[in-house]
Every structure is written in C-alpha cells, then in structure tokens.
Amino acid sequence: MIDLIAIQEEQIAWSQRNFGMQSYRQPLLGMIEEICELEAAWRTRDTQMVSILNHPTSVAAVDPKPTDEVLDAIGDIAIYMLDYCGKRGWQLKTFWDARQFRNDEGREFWWNLVPHARKLAHHDLKSSQGIRGTQEEHDREIMTTLSAILAHAEFICRYLERDFLTILNDVWSKVRLRDWTKNRANAHAVAAQQVVDGTNMARSNDP
C-alpha cells in the first residue's frame, strides 16, 4: 500500500536538500506548469486517437509517447503538490481523501485541468495582495482546488487504465534520485542513466 504521508516526508527532505528553504510559490508555479504540460500532451494524444479512428489501418503505428507524457505530467503535478503542501504545512493525503467524482459532468470536463491552474494562480495572487477575501478564504479555495485536481488526475488515469497512486509512486522513485546540487543542468538525465545502468548490471548478474 502506498503511504502518501511517508512519501510527502521524503519529498520535503529531498526538496530542502536540493533547493533549500524555498517559498511555497515555487512548487505552485511547478504545478501550474505541469497542468499546462498535461493539457498539451493530452491534445497531442487526442489528435492521434482521432487520426487512428479515421484511418484504422494505421493502428499498428500508434505512438505511445503522448500517453506516456500525459502520465508523466500527472506524476509531476502530484510531486509538486506534495512539495507545495509540505511548504504550507498541509497534508496531501487530506486533499486526496476529500476528492469527489461528479457523474453529472462529461468527459471533456474531466480532461481539462486548466481552469484549476487559473484558480490556483487567482487565489494565491489575491491572497498575497490582501484583496477580494481573507487569507483563510483564499486558502479554503486553494484547498478545494487541490482536491479537484486530484480527482481529475485520478479520472484520467482510470481512463488510461492506470492507477494514480502508482503513477505518483513511480515518478517519485525517479525524482528522488536527482541531485540538483551536483548536477544543476541535468540531474534528471544523470539519475535516469543511473537507473538504466543499475538495471543492466542486475541483468548481467542474473544466472
């Protein structure tokens, strides 16, 4: 069973080692960026699926990359959310448990997370300016939005026959290996190569 509280504790320590005591606005920007990445990846995947429907004989040439990019963006959204919650003193598990699926909405609604990015930016900005509501009111809206993002992400994963928590765990298992203090330009590539090297070594040691 995947323990969100334990993963968040690991992520908080990893973030501090790599980036120091950053503001919570850094992972907030990261969430917004990855939501836009997800939107772009989904549009690419959707275009490919429409093309396949119109030209069934090309099904053998399906490119898995767009789907992989969708799932990777979902994992990255979750990692940034872990970091954001940690910096706010919140538990992501609280918002995961509070997520709600609404059957009255169509599939297009569930595939579109961009309105949630707008809400995150709106309430963070207005809260920092001290206008259009109290900090507590803006925080409540942000908390509700975090739960909504998790519900949307879970829907997309289920549609793709994947499990959201497994995606989160898989992406975290890669991110946690990155050392940005040593490799400022390419820690992601260095960590990925380490995984490949470890896999190849394990295979070579098989009897």
Structural account:
It is a single chain. The mean pLDDT is 86. Helix 2 packs antiparallel against helix 6 (114-129), helix 3 (65-88) packs antiparallel against helix 7 and helix 3 (65-88) crosses helix 8 (164-175). The chain has helices spanning 4-19, 25-54, 65-88, 92-97, 107-111, 114-129, 135-159, 164-175, 187-204. The radius of gyration is 19 Å and the shape is globular. It has 2 domains: 4-176, no CATH class; 180-207. With 207 residues, it is mostly helical.
Structural class: mainly alpha
What value does the average pLDDT take? 86
Number of helices: 9
Number of strands: 0
Unreliable stretches: none
Distance between the termini: 31 Å
Whole-number count of domains: 2
Shape: globular
* Biggest pleated sheet: none
Proportion of strand residues: under 5%
The percentage helix is over 70%
CA radius of gyration = 19 Å
SSE series: HHHHHHHHH
Short recap of the structure:
The protein has 207 residues and is mainly α. It contains nine helices and no strands. Helix 2 packs antiparallel against helix 6 (114-129) and helix 6 packs antiparallel against helix 7.
